[in-house]
Write a sequence for this structure.
């Protein structure tokens, strides 16, 4: 998608992968729900969930992992849990991409407004 090249050419309007949001999350919204983790740290540790799966979909990963261990070797019976988990992961990915694009557009807007104020 050209993110590396765009980040190199326009570093002032392209947020990096480790950049925290610089704008108010409610800017442009009437109200917005804050995302919360459903699974607690203790639940994830007791389920021995690997670090790469400890995200907003961790509660579904725990349910899927438990189903797989309960129904082994007939793991096809866990198709519903797997589908729920993968759908959650996809929706999380889409939300993160939307937040990235929102941050990029707000940075461009801020740059455009600053340029107009100086002229």
């Amino acid at each position: 998608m050209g993110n590396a090249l765009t980040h190199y050419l326009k570093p002032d309007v392209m947020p990096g992968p480790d950049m925290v949001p610089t704008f108010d999350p409610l800017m442009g919204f009437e109200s917005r729900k804050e995302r919360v983790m459903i699974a607690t740290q203790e639940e994830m540790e007791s389920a021995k969930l690997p670090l790469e799966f400890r995200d907003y979909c961790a509660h579904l990963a725990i349910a899927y992992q438990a189903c797989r261990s309960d129904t082994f070797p007939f793991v096809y019976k866990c198709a519903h849990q797997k589908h729920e988990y993968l759908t959650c992961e996809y929706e999380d990915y889409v939300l993160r991409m939307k937040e990235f694009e929102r941050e990029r557009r707000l940075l461009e807007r801020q740059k455009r407004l600053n340029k107009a104020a100086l002229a």
Observations:
- Residues 57 and 91 are 10 Å apart (CA to CA).
